[in-house]
Design goal:
Layout (H helix, E strand, L loop, with lengths): L1 H5 L6 H13 L2 E3 L2 E4 L2 E3 L1 H8 L3 H13 L1 H7 L18 E7 L7 H11 L4 E6 L10 E5 L8 H5 L4 E5 L1
Antiparallel strand pairs: 1-2, 2-3, 4-6, 4-7, 5-6
Helix pairs in contact: 2-4, 3-4, 4-5
Length: about 160
């Protein structure tokens, strides 16, 4: 995915950085503005957050709006609520899984199968996109803490490097 998008920004490192951050955070472009779902965001605050100037933000929006392929992607992005940091407030479990190869298929399916065999409900599973993240992870938030006896089973799933509980 990212390799198809980044080519449109290859001569502009700041614009490329902005486009990647927009994808990472699920921020969409609509009518020459940047939105977090329906909330319009300030160009200047985004520029400060991304450590770029406001003109680069506007130039990135312009490139996206001029290209049908890019506009179709960036106009449909959605932010995601990530429950990892609040899970302990609800006595939920959190597994952070570091893959050996993030593009390997079956990691999520096999871990979910092990958890479901313990009759534990998965509240949320979020996988970092391996093209957008330097260290992609799989986060699984469960309705209760995962019993320690299944951790070795999960660790033995093919493609898992380590687990953080």
């Amino acid at each position: 995915m990212w390799n198809k998008i980044e080519n449109y920004f290859k001569n502009y490192p700041k614009r490329k950085k902005i486009a990647k951050k927009l994808l990472e955070y699920g921020l969409k472009i609509k009518e020459n503005k940047i939105y977090c779902d329906v909330i319009e965001l300030s160009d200047s605050k985004i520029a400060r957050s991304f450590n770029v100037d406001r003109r680069s933000i506007n130039a990135t929006i312009e490139i996206i709006n001029r290209n049908k392929f890019l506009k179709n992607i960036f106009s449909k992005l959605q932010p995601t609520c990530h429950l990892k940091e609040v899970a302990s407030n609800f006595n939920w479990g959190v597994l952070e899984i570091i893959p050996t190869d993030p593009s390997k298929s079956g990691i999520l399916a096999n871990v979910a199968k092990i958890i479901s065999e313990e009759n534990i409900s998965i509240r949320q599973a979020i996988v970092d996109d391996f093209e957008l993240s330097d260290e992609p992870r799989l986060y699984i938030i469960t309705e209760q803490n995962v019993p320690s006896n299944i951790i070795p089973k999960i660790k033995n799933v093919k493609g898992i490097k380590s687990i953080i509980i």
